Amino acid sequence: MDSRQNITNYLAEVLEVPAEALASCDNFYTFKKVAKNEFLLRDGEICMDTFFVEKGLLRMYSLDRNGKEHIIQFAPENWLISDRSSLNFNQKSKYYIEAVEDSEVYLLSKDFFTNMIEKFPNIAENNDMLLQKHIRNLQNRVNSLLADTAEERYMTFIKMYPDILLRVPQWMVASYLGITPESLSRVRKELARKNFETS
């Protein structure tokens, strides 16, 4: 039995769909249980959906020519994740989207937001703001990888994903930050030392 609490809250509070119309949104998405390590998207496939995480944790990553993973994004509860280039331009994806934990997700079709706006024109402004925030976050992430120190990137990660450190292995965190696990260990030790000295 699927739970709809988070998707319902997202529609009602984030997109501001009228409460009396929430039940009519069921036709616009489908429910899927995803086992740990199961893939929702693989390199070479065309992404057909945006994934809303009702419960659990997903990650999106790419592999370089040496087979090294580069994690682009984590998606815990209430997050959306998708390969937008593949979804919107019908291109083969360069990414994998995989469940880090046993998860429950809603698959939002390519036309989900278009259909929602046609049905509820009032949500168009909120949807546009969400898109602009997504673009801003991507820009900030690129700038952080290019310009920030490992410590600064780690602090930004903690603010963005406050509960994920306890849910993923350290090598995944290091991959997201673009550093080695050894460098991450040094960063954490240095931060612990600073906190000890100032406490």
From TrEMBL:
Stored PROSITE patterns: CNMP_BINDING_3
Domain of life: Bacteria
InterPro entries per the UniProt record, alphabetical: cNMP-bd_dom (IPR000595), cNMP-bd_dom_sf (IPR018490), RmlC-like_jellyroll (IPR014710)
CDD domains reported in the protein's UniProt record: CAP_ED
Pfam families to which the protein is assigned, alphabetical: cNMP_binding
SUPFAM superfamilies registered for this protein in UniProt: cAMP-binding domain-like
Domain Cyclic nucleotide-binding: from-to ranges: 29-117
Gene3D superfamilies given in the database record: Jelly Rolls
Coiled coil region boundaries: none
Protein name, entry field: Crp/Fnr family transcriptional regulator
Biological source species: Kaistella flava (ex Peng et al. 2021)
Taxonomic lineage from the root: Bacteria, Pseudomonadati, Bacteroidota, Flavobacteriia, Flavobacteriales
